[in-house]
UniProtKB/TrEMBL annotation:
Source taxon at top rank: Bacteria
Organism of origin: Algoriphagus formosus
Pfam families: Glyco_tran_WbsX
Name this protein carries in UniProt: Glycosyl transferase family WbsX
Keyword field contains Disulfide bond: no
Region forming the signal peptide: 1-19
Xref: PANTHER family: GLYCOSYLTRANSFERASE (PTHR41244:SF1), RHAMNAN SYNTHESIS F (PTHR41244)
Keywords assigned: Signal
InterPro entries, per database record: WbsX
Species classification: Bacteria, Pseudomonadati, Bacteroidota, Cytophagia, Cytophagales
Length: 518
């Protein structure tokens, strides 16, 4: 498993990467149509009281292949480029990894991102005391829930009669092979879930009124994981005895793995009193970049609605009222950027040998994709980070505030007459991906748009952005609901972190507390 974690590094550091080009082109929508004219500075007394504040939580992981060394994926990149596995990753930076020179110099270390001493500085991610302090800070400063970025590796077979593997989740009564140490018939396991386990264990120890609510943010967007899935039963995997004859990633197994994921949520998460629920009692699941899951399901002739309907049926079978799915999505909006658009289909180059690769097809622009979400089974949408709005890129935090206004207005207006589909207004504290090499990784070894790595806010500008978000949320209360989603608690490598650090202290938590008066 140690070597597995290093292999998987490219997945999560590339998870939230996208590519955009900046050539001049005509827009397909009038830019004026996107930016609204809200009262972005309402009296403070009008802002407080009703909003539900959520924050995304990104797990870190061990990048070392040495079983005696724990090299945290966050702290290693912040402190020393030689120990940063992301910078050495040929999958995203090319054969030489990230190249530094006079034009693209190394600008670290980024020690201002070191958590405060109360969090033990560069803490161990599974430290119960740190987890307890994180939960207490969230609660004390007015955050109502965290959405944990949740990853699942579909391709991993394991053996329930073999040591530590016996503790890996497997639905009760499902088929195993007793002649092969209890080898599971349906593969797949949670990745980077150790931090969540500690957070939930500590949360359960707190008095009920001090517990944090939480939800899954399912990140099913990794191309590397998809290719690892398609390699099940391939000649190479059979040769190295990773698989047995008959194990293959066909449509039936794909659906069984999806059911396994849902059953895991039901058995281990949805039964918890601290899991986030909608007003009608349904557990809430955030779904990061649904276009990626949709395109891969299409390989099997399935729609994303087929998958969400199966999850709903399993939830109701377990006597739950259903699941409320919220899409977390963003993407390009200009015709010249369609090559980087939201795909809806993955097609293998050779259908008989899909593990050799394929391509994502039928790509849509964001404004084409979003209207389809409700028909897929989603009841709302929000975002992780918006990097642009039409022609406007984020080159500063002032730019980011402007692009967010464009999105807030466009999607609030889009759904204002639909009380059954909500737009949860998103807010980000900035963007600066230099510790991970810069925006965006290219096979040349250099970032394509390093000018985007200067989107830095202050307590004052972040607080003002929160106020604007609340004004939008309240103006469209009937359709937008009341949730404000903040990115992020701890996206240290992307420069999007409100957790207290030596650089900004409690500034961002204090801003949340001041705006929401909790």
């Amino acid at each position: 498993m140690k070597s597995l974690l290093k292999t998987l590094l490219s997945c999560s550091l590339a998870l939230f990467f996208c590519a955009c080009q900046n050539e001049k082109s005509n827009t397909i929508i009038s830019q004026k149509a996107g930016f609204g004219h809200f009262d972005f500075n309402p009296p403070q007394e009008e802002l407080a009281g009703e909003e539900l504040v959520g924050v995304y939580f990104m797990p870190s992981w061990n990048t070392s292949t040495d079983p005696n060394v724990d090299r945290d994926s966050f702290w290693s990149c912040i402190q020393d480029p030689k120990n940063c596995a992301s910078l050495q990753n040929p999958g995203i930076w090319g054969p030489k990894g990230r190249i530094y020179n006079a034009r693209y110099p190394y600008e670290g270390p980024y020690l201002d991102r070191k958590p405060i001493k109360e969090l033990k500085g560069f803490y161990k991610r599974t430290d119960p005391e740190v987890a307890r302090t994180q939960l207490q800070y969230m609660k004390e400063y007015g955050i109502d829930f965290f959405a944990y970025d949740w990853f699942f590796g579909r391709n991993y077979y394991y053996h329930l009669y073999f040591g530590p593997q016996s503790k890996i989740y497997y639905p009760e009564g499902w088929k195993i092979d007793p002649n092969r140490d209890g080898r599971v018939a349906v593969p797949g396991l949670v990745e980077w879930g150790d931090q969540l386990e500690v957070l939930l264990a500590e949360n359960a120890k707190l008095p009920k009124e001090k517990q944090m609510k939480w939800a899954v943010n399912w990140c099913d967007d990794s191309h590397e994981r998809w290719m690892a899935w398609l390699k099940i039963g391939s000649p190479d995997e059979l040769a190295r005895k990773a698989n047995y004859e008959g194990e293959k990633p066909d449509r039936e197994l794909y659906l069984q793995v999806h059911d396994k994921i849902t059953q895991l949520w039901i058995d281990q998460y949805f039964s918890r009193v601290d899991y986030l629920r909608s007003e009608d009692g349904r557990p809430v699941v955030y779904f990061y970049f649904p276009q990626d899951a949709e395109s891969r399901a299409a390989f099997y002739g399935l729609s994303l609605k087929d998958l969400l309907d199966r999850s709903q049926a399993l939830a109701k079978k377990a006597k739950l009222p259903g699941i409320k799915f919220i899409a977390v999505t963003a993407g390009p909006m200009l015709e010249r950027e369609r090559a980087y658009g939201l795909p809806t289909q993955w097609k293998a180059k050779n259908p008989n040998r899909p593990w050799e690769g394929g391509e994502y097809q039928k790509k849509m622009l964001l404004q084409e994709y979003v209207p389809r979400l409700k028909s897929m089974g989603f009841e709302g949408m929000t975002a992780y980070v918006y990097h642009n709005f039409l022609e406007k890129d984020n080159r500063s935090y002032a730019d980011m505030r402007e692009t967010y206004r464009g999105h807030w207005n466009m999607w609030s207006e889009k759904f204002k007459s639909d009380p059954n589909f909500e737009y949860q207004v998103p807010v980000a504290m900035g963007w600066d991906m230099r510790p991970a090499g810069g925006t965006w990784p290219q096979q040349t070894g250099f970032p394509s748009e390093p000018y985007k790595d200067r989107v830095h806010s202050t307590k004052s500008t972040f607080r003002d952005k929160l106020k604007e978000a609340v004004a939008v949320s309240q103006k469209y209360r009937a359709s937008n609901g009341k949730t404000i989603m903040v990115c992020c608690w701890n996206e240290y490598l992307e420069g999007n972190y409100i957790e207290p650090t030596e650089g900004h202290g409690f500034d961002y938590l204090e801003a949340i507390q001041e705006v929401f008066e909790k």
